[in-house]
Amino acid sequence: MYDYLKGMVDYIGPEYIVVENGGIGYQVVTPNPFVFSNQLKKEIQIYLYQYVREDLIALYGFQTRQEKALFMKLLGVTGIGPKGALAILASGQVDQVVQAIEQEDESFLVKFPGVGKKTARQMILDLKGKLEHIIPDAFPSLFHEPSERIETKSTELDEAILALKALGYSDKEVQKVAKQLGAETFTTEQYIKKALQMMLR
Questions:
Q1: Are strands 24-29 and 56-62 parallel, antiparallel or unpaired?
Q2: Same domain, 126 and 87
Q3: Do 81 and 95 meet the contact criterion of CB atoms below 8 Å apart?
Q4: What are the start and end residues of every segment in region (Domain III) (predicted)?
């Protein structure tokens, strides 16, 4: 089992990045590849989870151990596969997701792409009370402090649209927010962040 990979970011796409190490390019699927935009051609350390089934072997990568731990927990929930778990992590902060599960906030959880009421209830049943180890330092004050915002990165709106579609949002949903954001000038990460905020309202 891999724990992490250090290497140079060689490519960034809407679903994955390529990290080069020792002359080999590793395709690593991440919740939001564009958070690595300002690290293109630079060395990073990314935490890995190797997913294996009969017809698929894939590497999933995360910026923090907390993201990786939550991803692994989400995979254990009936009705959530790797793509669904990635969409949840891309759309929400780790502490936001943990807080929603601990507070049994189904209305928040169903805002994630691919998560209906049944899956939201299953997440709560399977995970409530089992996530404290993911963010132990923040857990006592989790329900009283605002979530920390992700720092924005760079690129543009068309890449943001590709990323949103890769997360499972429909063309109709993406176009709706794209029209509202089209008049503004942001980096790709800012577009994605603002679009996700609008979709989660």
A1: parallel
A2: yes
A3: no
A4: 155-201
Write the pLDDT tens digit of every residue in 44-80.
999 999 999 888 899 999 999 999 999 999 999 999 9
Does any domain span residue 172?
A: yes
- Find the CATH number of the domain harbouring 88: 1.10.150.20
3-state helix, strand, coil in the chain (%, to 5): 45, 20, 35
37: tokens are: 């935009």
Instruction: Yes or no: say if 112 and 88 are a contact pair by the CB < 8 Å rule.
Output: yes
**CA 135 from centroid of its chain's CA atoms:** 16
Interval 101-119: pLDDT, tens:
999 999 999 999 889 999 9
Question: Looking at residue 148, what DSSP letter applies?
Answer: P
| Domain co-membership, 13 together with 73 | no
In this structure, the chain runs to a length of 201
Under 8 Å CB-to-CB from 71, ≥6 apart: which residues? 49, 60, 62, 85, 86, 89
